[in-house]
Amino acid sequence: MVRKVRALGCVRHSSNSAPRTCTVHAHAHFSPSAATTNMEAGDHATGLAWALLSCVLFGSFGVPIKTPAVVNAKVDPVVFQCYKTLACFSTCWIALLYVPFKFTYWGFVGAAIWVVNGTCAIAAVQKAGLAVAQSLWSGLSIIVAFLWGVYAFGEVPKSTSLAWCAIALMTAGMVAIGYGAANKGGTPCKPHTDGDVDSEGAHVEAENLIRDEDGNVKYASKTSNQQFVTGVALATYVGVANGSFAVPLKYANQSVKGAEYLVSFGIGALLLTALMASAYAALLRFGLGRPLPNPHVAIAAKPALATGILWSAGNACSIFAAERLGLSVGWPLVQCQLLVSVCWGIFYYREVTSTASIGLILGGSLVVLAGVALLAQYGA
Q1: Taking Cα atoms as reference points, which of 47, 48, 137 lies closest to residue 372?
Q2: Host domain of residue 70
Q3: Which residue in 11, 34, 219, 283 is a FRET match for 267, CA 20 to 30 A apart?
Q4: Distance between alpha carbon 256 and the CA centroid of its chain, in Å?
């Protein structure tokens, strides 16, 4: 008679006449590779969550200063930037509650990209029009960030061909959204990119606006060919610089990590904005003979500071996303902030009223989301 006794993975064969023997089969064992895979999957999911939160914050940071009182005050874009930088500098110190103070000059490089980029973005919109400028720099930002990640920092995707397909889909969708938002809307949606200093505060002169047959405001093409070419060149720079915005962070990672970078960025933003504002004031006063802009403290200070806080929170989330997903995946995903800002324009501000434009925006959004899903799966 043979009986099998199974306990805790042990199978014991015994008989009445033979000595009992026990054969132990290891049904489970610890696998370091499996543990690593689980950790990577956790980081991937966390990175996607940070990217999503960054999109919401970046796409919403312009909402506080789009109130009628602020818009009617026509606050100078440089004044907006000063308020926004003050909020960025003030909030960056919160990071010291979680990490030690570490300084890196790479934070100054990132801040320089941020400050200069926004000024160029405003000029690009004024010279080339919102549709061309926004679409061009949104698409370029995605492509440039992917190129940096894959070819400069060796972030090898799971499938290079499918990752490029995802980038192409996201770029095409961004172009469609940009044209839909700018060509047939009420008050054209302002682009919300992390490199955008204050495009939401840039007020195009009234003579540059016309109304179409439906009564919707749109940008008129009253610029000369030279101005248009200049605008395209500026928008190209904005796209390249915005796609490179997280590059200083990658180099800074040799000495600082994530939240530690924020303090250096905040200090750099304050110093560089002070230099820009001083140069701007000198140009107005001594070069052009114009008065200094009104700071509109009572009207604009609180909304502009709220905008700066939202942007700073979005910037922190984008850094955490890029750390976990890499520059080639994290930063392109963050550019989906455009979807959020356009949703604000359509559903809250009613800026886009044309059925054709809304259809183009929704179609472009679906294409972008398809690219996002593909990149999240095969780009990491």
Answers
A1: 48
A2: 45-378
A3: 283
A4: 21
